[in-house]
Amino acid sequence: MSHYPVYLWQDIDAEPETPKFGETFLKSDYPLTPEEVEARTREYVRGSLGPNKNRFDEGKIVVHQVWDASSYAQKLGIFKPHSHLDDAIRNQCLHSRIRGSEKHKMTASDMMYSVTQFLRQHDLPLCSLHLTSWQYDGVLDILNGITGKKNAVVLADWVARFGKTLAALVAFIESGKDRMVITSYVQTVATSFRDEIGRYLQFANCDFIDSSDDDYLLQIKKAEALGHKPITYVSLCPGSKRNKRLDAIFQPTISNFVVVDEADYGSHTVAQVRPLMTTIKRNPDNAVLLMTGTNADRAASEWKVTHYSNYTYTDLLHIKHKARG
Fold first, then answer.
1. What is the chain's Cα-based Rg?
2. Strands of 61-68's sheet in order across
């Protein structure tokens, strides 16, 4: 069974950022798993670079995402090699194409999100998420800290490259809470969560919602009407609408899994924390996860932490060494 994937890659040294959106047709005598489709597409991208393969091997050419768009190609009646499936998709959801190329003057993150949202409407197969051993342990640690407890506040003091975003998302799925609310003073946090939600099978029934959208409350209701879990981002940056958004999102009858990401940067100040704490207290079944990898004391300075989880770089090295036997 053949597959028709599209892909997005970027030369990280290129200025300005101009990711490439392309296609390949994979012939196979049997159905490939999403992981196999991704692996073979990455091999194709590497081979397409010709004498620049070394840049791929050095990590300077980054394949951001691979989508198996076979179902959409079949719907269009173009399920065959060189049918320009990439153009059919880009014309629907991308913009700012550089004339004469497959590159765009867009951020890779925005392109990934736009393509994923479009293809999810057309039976997009998603990869299955496999946690690292420390992410798995971190999820269990979070769940132990919130399950059956009122007003739970977990401080996750986890080193950089731990994979905090994925661990937090899995913990939410397993927590049984009605909704997830992501807050931060750092705007790029929203993009990190948004991109991971659209990438994996485990989050297929989750909808990312940005509360800066005028219709964010309607989006939350629509998601729940479909049986989906809404994951809503609320910026903690000062603004006339911030407190109104918090008031609208946190209701006494709804349990929330609340993530304060980069909790030691801006989010720790009284002006940002107090309005959030006030609305969270409306329901003692709300659970809070403070995530940081730099200054745990500052991140927790305004919170009554009920559970502490810590992983250092040395811990990760030890886990890796133990796994190798």
1. 21
2. 20-23, 5-11, 61-68
Q: What are phi and psi of 187, to 5 degrees?
A: -65, -30
Q: For the segment 63-72, what is each residue's pLDDT rounded down to a tens digit?
A: 999 999 999 9
Q: Using the 8-state DSSP alphabet, how is residue 60 labeled?
A: -
What is the distance between the alpha carbons of residues 206 and 223, in angstroms, rounded to a whole number?
8
d(CA 172, CA 228): 13
pTM of the model: 0.82
Q: Are 234 and 183 in contact (CB under 8 A)?
A: yes
Q: Mention every residue, 6+ apart, whose C-beta is less than 8 A from residue 179.
A: 220, 229, 230, 231, 232, 249, 254, 255, 256, 257
Helix (H, G, I), strand (E, B) or coil at 113: helix
Look at residues 9, 124, 128, 117 and name the one whose alpha carbon lies nearest to residue 70: 124
Render 262-324 in DSSP notation, one character per residue: TTTTTTTSHHHHHHHHHHHTT-TT-EEEEEESS-HHHHTTTS--SEEEEE-HHHHHHHHHHHT
pLDDT reported for residue 325: 62
Residue 41 is classified by DSSP as H
Question: In what order do the strands lie in the sheet containing 229-235?
Answer: 206-210, 229-235, 179-184, 256-260, 287-292, 152-158, 307-311
What is the Cα–Cα distance from 59 to 69, expressed in whole angstroms?
26
